[in-house]
Amino acid sequence: MTVFGVDIASGSPSSRQAPFYSLVILEGDVAVPQHMISRHKLIRLIRERQPEIVAMDNVHELAADRKELINLMRRLPAATKLVQVTGGERTEALTKIARWHGMTFDRTKSLQEAEVCARLAGKGVGAVLSAFEERTWIKVSRRRSLGRGGWSQNRYSRKIHGAVKGLARDVERQLGEAGLEYTFRAVEGLGGYTRAEFVVEAPREKVHIDTGYFCDAQLKVQSIERPELQYKPLLQRRGYIIVGLDPGTTTGIAALNLKGELVDLISARELSSSGVIEWIAARGRPLVVATDVFPTPGAVEKVKRAFSAVLFSPGADMPAEEKIALGKEFGYKNDHERDALAAAASAFKKYRNKFQLVEKKVPSEIDPDEVKALVVRGYSIENAIAEFAPLREPETRPLALKEPANIAVEDASLRSQNQQLAEQVRTLRSYVDELAEKAREKDAALRSLNAKIDRLRDKTAREIKRHHEIKIRDKEIERLRSVLRSERKYIKKLKKALARQKKMEKIEELQGLRRIKPLEAFSREAVLKACERWGLETGDLVYLEDASGGGKSTVELLQEKGVVAVIIDSEMAPAMQEYFLEKGIPVYGGRQLAVQKIDGLPFVRPERVEAARAAWEEERKAFLARRQAERLESIFQEYRVERKKEEKRKKKQG
User: Fold this and answer.
1) In this structure, are residues 307 and 280 in contact, taking their beta carbons and an 8 Å threshold?
2) What average pLDDT does range 587-610 have in this prediction?
3) CB-hemisphere CA count at 13 Å for 22?
4) Inter-axis angle of helices 574-583 and 552-560, nearest 10
5) For residue 494, pLDDT beyond 50
6) What is the CATH number assigned to the segment(s) 134-231?
7) Class of CATH domain 238-361
């Protein structure tokens, strides 16, 4: 295993002058020092060597602020852990931790400090900095700007948006082939997507898609940043832990260290008792086994006895609000993990004040966790510290030898005492045998009663859990009923729309008419409402009874929907008619086309539309010709003005 120990040698990340670092590369017992290297070189060495651990006494020595630290961590290899050997959110002095592990160093020499950091991390001491969630963010977007517009603006937009959509589909296909879960969101644009985003439920190292640039689109892939930095203890260190247990068909287990930091969290179906014990033993030495319900389930009692741990029970079932508040700090995926976290956090809360007193009173040469363990088991803080204090050798004094006055008399007396003591021993042994037999009988009765209590506790816990699950199920049934009612209303609405559609199609077929889709008003809201009700499609005719109001955005929306003509029954502003003409959308009068209404729905003869279309084409040609002439006239006017200015300048110079 390769471990990098790093300490800042000079400067500061927040100063103008770039800092320099001391680096010790530890491979086995061989330490290779490098002094006064830049941050750029340090990162390059980490990327080249890809060590398992980069250890420091303070990770914020690498960056001036959180944003810079996050950017730096994005550049590190995925398998490299950034470890703060002084602990997570609650830190200890590096000198104190080094003494606990039999190490000393000179704080004025940064190379020695870097080596101590590396060796401590190699032993599993410290906390891993976790800045990213187990999720990955992928963004597909335009690589080119759409520019200020022109005659080919729409074609250019369709080309770029089509490239973004094509790249998004490639990403979607790769994620599907890899079997990764994800959520997808895209913003529609002309001819495709303006951008698309994926949130993949997997860490960055499992998403085999790289950031890149393509002809008209670009791809960005990065881990999702946590709202707050988290520190997780290295699992190699098997220190004391507080275990929260939620037994059942799905078992939830949470482990906290004695500083209240999360060591690990799991929920699994049909996890056996031996599996629970193995999982806990792999994370540390259980000091407290906690539950969130009362009475204590038998499965929790078994785990507690297996580790000779202290049991924590709340005395009454915890309210759901309290569980959510306790588990929110750590984060959880389901109710089982939440209940386990709540039990462990509640147990830590009970002992937190005593733990803080221990840390204040314990001498630097004694590991405070060992003292905390004795305090939890019932020792006072002073007695617990005394258990680990070095013993003083008692002063020895020479004994004065005294010769017996009469050896024979003393010998007879000793023989008599010996016979009396032997008889007393025989009597006591007989009494001990009787007591042992009674103890065995009581133990058997106690085991029988404990087994009965365990069965009753399990039955009670199952009944309570079943009642809780029934409540949850009833709420879910009510929610689904509400959804079903909404869906039925929606289906009824769709059926009415379908019947109306069929009726219109029948009228078209029998009478040779073409239907027109009506708009309530000349506004964007009315257009969107008509899309929802009638389903505006490319090639549709639109009927406007009231053509007042409206604006350019409404015209552009109609063009985007593919409307080929607008029929009006009232006066429209000349500016709007001209804008429709500019956009290539004919505007016909209702009287001109002889609009017919059947059951309140407008229809028109197709041949009248064709005739009106031909007349409009001629009008549009004339309009475009006028526009061209106006542009040419404007150019000539500008030219004349410039010529006059040029002649005046020449006269002045002459």
Assistant:
1) yes
2) 81
3) 20
4) 30
5) yes
6) 3.30.70
7) alpha beta
